[in-house]
Specification:
This protein is α+β, with helices and mostly antiparallel strands and about 260 residues long. The chain has 10 helices and 7 strands. Helix 7 links the parallel strand 5 and strand 6. The longest helix has 23 residues. The radius of gyration is 18 Å and the shape is globular.
Length: about 260
């Protein structure tokens, strides 16, 4: 683990790990609303509290992202006897998707699912793939799972398990006719993936809109560019810290 990550995780000295995760996840909701990635009072983000993904934090049903605070996130313990009561406070699709992904993809510490405009526009194409036409689109070269098996609202266990399997070993999934899901080892890293994914999707949509042929990189150049991004992973923590400082000035109640 890098010194940067150690510093990031110890920045909130004096509070529990769960509280630190609550604050980060609440910040992600507020920031997603600022970036216009939210949709009415739907969509959902979560973070696992254990290595098996059996306990996690998630937003309550039908609460706007701008109203999310650290304290009103729901703590779900899938092994608890009152699990039916716990899930009653969740959107059905949130429970279906997030419980399955955290359980079946234990590497998915954080799962962000939403319908940002440009990425969702790509998901409405027969070929929603990101073509490597600049360094941001190339960041995702051979690193995106594409699921074209949309089967309506994901509100049953079988569909949740199918989506969890569709991730394979990727951190990004473009969900045909639906939206996007990203996973990461921390809120900061998952948020950074989502940030660059939507920017890359915007570049694709704008390039398609010109009607001119795309200047697609060779596979070798695209892979070289994608691999080059690995050295920049820790920038996610500085970016997220900056965004949280902005929230501290404008919407400090997110951390309550």
């Amino acid at each position: 683990m890098s010194a940067k990550i150690e510093h990031y995780r110890s920045a909130s000295t004096g509070i529990s790990e769960e509280q630190a995760l609550r604050i980060d996840l609440a910040a992600a909701f507020r920031l997603a609303a600022q970036f216009d990635w939210h949709e009415s009072v739907g969509n959902h983000f979560s973070v696992a509290l254990d290595d098996k993904g059996e306990t996690f934090l998630i937003n309550p049903k039908w609460r706007h992202f701008n109203d999310i605070t650290a304290s009103n996130l729901v703590r779900v313990d899938t092994k608890a006897p009152d699990i039916a009561e716990q899930t009653a406070s969740l959107d059905a699709t949130a429970w279906t998707i997030h419980s399955a992904v955290h359980r079946l993809q234990p590497r998915a510490k954080v799962l962000l699912h939403c319908h940002p405009a440009y990425a969702t526009a790509l998901c409405g194409l027969q070929d929603p793939g990101l073509k490597p036409i600049d360094q941001n689109t190339a960041r995702f070269f051979n690193r995106v799972a594409i699921d074209l098996g949309f089967n309506g609202l994901a509100d049953d266990a079988e569909e949740g398990e199918r989506l969890a399997a569709a991730f394979s070993n990727r951190n990004v999934m473009l969900m045909g006719n639906h939206g996007v899901s990203v996973v990461g080892s921390s809120v900061a890293e998952a948020f950074e993936i989502l940030y660059f994914l939507e920017r890359a999707a915007r570049t694709m949509v704008l390039a398609y809109s010109t009607g001119q042929p795309l200047n697609i990189m060779s596979d070798n150049l695209a892979e070289k560019t994608a691999s080059g991004w690995d050295a920049y992973n820790d920038m996610a923590f500085d970016h997220f810290a900056h965004l949280k400082r902005q929230l501290d000035r404008t919407s400090p109640d997110y951390a309550n």
